[in-house]
Request: fold
Amino acid sequence: MFHFYTIADGERAAIWDIGGRRELVTGPKRLLLFRKRAILLKAFVAGPAQYLVIEHRDGRVVHERGPVSVWMDPVEHASIHMAEAISLDANEAVVVYRQEQSKIARRIMRGPELFVPDPSEWLHKFSWHGATPADPRHKAPGALNFTKLRVIPDQMYFDVEDVRTADDALLVVKLMIFFELRNIETMLNETHDPIADFINAVSADVIDMASQLSFDEFKEQTKRLGDLNTYTQLTQRAERIGYGINKVVYRGYHASSKLQAMHDNAIETRTRLHLETETEQQVQALADLKLTRDQERSRQRREMEQAEAEHQLLLKKTAHAEQLRQLQADRELELSGRKSSNDEEIRQMRAKHEARLAARKAANELAILRELEHNREQAEFFRLLGGMQVDLTRYLVAQYQNPDRLIRIEGGRDSRVHLHEEQ
Reply:
């Protein structure tokens, strides 16, 4: 029987003939089929964070990492399904096992990584103690199931129950444990449940400490529960299984209802006494405050009076200083006037004296000129007399027969004479 069969673009079909032979045809194509049947194949697609698990009919299993697209061929493939790749952050790791002939190898894959296991590999599945949804403080076996290990510091809450003191007080001690996985290989080889090891070790440390103390001594020494040196068994066990304990925080304790009631009554009594003490202290403090305020007001009043007196004295000093300044200014003005008058008088006297000196100088110069003129005339006269053969000595002696002064000098041979004429 003839019929047409269309394979659209993006599709693939398997065509079987009457002899059972298969042919794969990819569209777009239009076929004329005679005594043949066609089946559209299903395409399986995996994205960048996925992979395809392909099971062949010969028993082989192949993992194709995405992005990839595979047509399922019913002749070759038994099944195909898509799986998510294992995304590992920088603080995560997985333990991978691999079948190698007759042995099984183990390796640790750390993030950041997008891990696609081979068909012969599988992941280690951890089953640890974990918090129950009903009571997060209570840890139950197998409550925590996972394949990714966190390799960063972590913490957990845990209440150590049935802690009995030396005087038989039954307590529940609340703790918070900070731990860190340091060696994965050691952890895999030494334990199957680290949380259970932590619980057992810390319970032993707390019970050992409390058994040596009475209830009152326990309350006084609770700060030891925040000291890492108290938890020797916990730290030693953690180190042995590849972990490190960074810190243990004490979060308080809880006692039985009867003991708690007694403790609450004691707290109530202490609180009442404390409040009464505080009330009395406040009364006394109020009285002290009133007295202090009165003293402060008295001191302020004295300071204000003193400040007022100092202000008045300052005003008087200022007025006196202003009066002295005014007197000083008047005196300086008077002295300045006198100085100006004296300067003017001195200037006038100096002018008169200079005028007299100038007149005397002019008179002297005139006399000198006259004397010089007379001397020239006399010299000319004597020169004429000399030209006339006149004896000038006899002439002068005859003219001045009566001298004004007569000086007679007598002395020895080696005598020295000094004459000094005074005007």
